[in-house]
């Protein structure tokens, strides 16, 4: 198995654990089962948190909503960015230049501040989606637009145009498949961005309401007990790092492969 396959398997494994972890936990993550900040024991591999709840059960159950929200936000930003980038890169008109300029202006906005403003007016998941779209779509648009502009005079594009195919057909059947690796790499970056935004907002208290387990909220909840049971803080931090790290690494490899073509 090559590096791409190994990383794809790693990403899939992390996502399966995150999305199906509550079933794997086999225990109620909201139930008090030990003394506050109890250390690891045979029945509690990662000990207990400040309310005596099973840390392992909460970690296994705490990634589902964060992952679903992040994937939804990343997909929305990627679809909008790819569609806008194909249009802006293919069309030489003023409207396309305005769209590209607007994307540059959005990239200058402080993303976390935008997300906080969105969180003040919208529910947590909607704020993550809004922040990811505002912060990620412009960058995707610029990347895809530049790649589309460069492909306008490629041999396979000119051959398709000479056959009488419409611009839409050329974009969807010729240019978009040619940039599949680039789109996949960019989607990975949008996922990482969405995870970061979701984690930041959840740490600040805009995520699921207690006692619902959440990896990011567990960082805030378990910080006071760091010396008593470090695993209660380290475990959700490792889970977040594993999710973002594996996706970022796979995205990097996809981008590298695209550049070498």
TrEMBL record:
<keyword id="KW-1003">Cell membrane</keyword>
<keyword id="KW-0812">Transmembrane</keyword>
<feature type="domain" description="ABC transmembrane type-1">
    <location>
        <begin position="67"/>
        <end position="251"/>
    </location>
</feature>
<dbReference type="InterPro" id="IPR035906">
    <property type="entry name" value="MetI-like_sf"/>
</dbReference>
<dbReference type="InterPro" id="IPR000515">
    <property type="entry name" value="MetI-like"/>
</dbReference>
<protein>
    <submittedName>
        <fullName>ABC transporter permease subunit</fullName>
    </submittedName>
</protein>
<feature type="transmembrane region" description="Helical">
    <location>
        <begin position="68"/>
        <end position="90"/>
    </location>
</feature>
<dbReference type="Pfam" id="PF00528">
    <property type="entry name" value="BPD_transp_1"/>
</dbReference>
<dbReference type="InterPro" id="IPR050366">
    <property type="entry name" value="BP-dependent_transpt_permease"/>
</dbReference>
<feature type="transmembrane region" description="Helical">
    <location>
        <begin position="231"/>
        <end position="255"/>
    </location>
</feature>
<keyword id="KW-1133">Transmembrane helix</keyword>
<keyword id="KW-0472">Membrane</keyword>
<keyword id="KW-0813">Transport</keyword>
<comment type="similarity">
    <text>Belongs to the binding-protein-dependent transport system permease family.</text>
</comment>
């Amino acid at each position: 198995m090559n590096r791409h396959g190994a990383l794809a398997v790693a990403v899939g494994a992390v996502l399966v654990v995150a999305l199906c972890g509550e079933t794997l936990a086999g225990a109620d993550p909201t139930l008090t089962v030990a003394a506050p900040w109890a250390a690891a024991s045979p029945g509690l591999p990662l000990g207990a948190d400040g309310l005596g709840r099973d840390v392992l059960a909460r970690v296994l159950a705490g990634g589902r909503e964060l992952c679903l929200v992040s994937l939804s936000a990343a997909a929305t930003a990627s679809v909008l960015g790819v569609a806008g980038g194909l249009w802006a890169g293919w069309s030489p008109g003023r409207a396309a230049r305005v769209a590209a300029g607007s994307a540059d202006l959005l990239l200058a906005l402080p993303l976390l501040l935008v997300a906080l403003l969105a969180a003040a007016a919208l529910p947590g998941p909607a704020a993550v989606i809004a922040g990811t779209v505002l912060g990620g779509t412009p960058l995707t648009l610029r990347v895809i637009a530049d790649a589309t502009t460069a492909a306008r005079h490629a041999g396979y594009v000119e051959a398709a145009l000479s056959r009488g195919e419409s611009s839409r057909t050329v974009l969807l059947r010729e240019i978009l498949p040619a940039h599949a690796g680039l789109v996949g790499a960019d989607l990975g970056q949008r996922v990482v961005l969405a995870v970061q935004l979701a984690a930041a907002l959840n740490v600040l208290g805009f995520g699921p309401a207690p006692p619902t387990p959440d990896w990011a909220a567990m960082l805030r909840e378990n910080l006071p007990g760091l010396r008593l049971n470090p695993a209660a803080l380290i475990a959700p931090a490792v889970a977040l790092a594993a999710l973002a790290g594996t996706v970022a690494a796979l995205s990097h490899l996809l981008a590298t492969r695209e550049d070498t073509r």
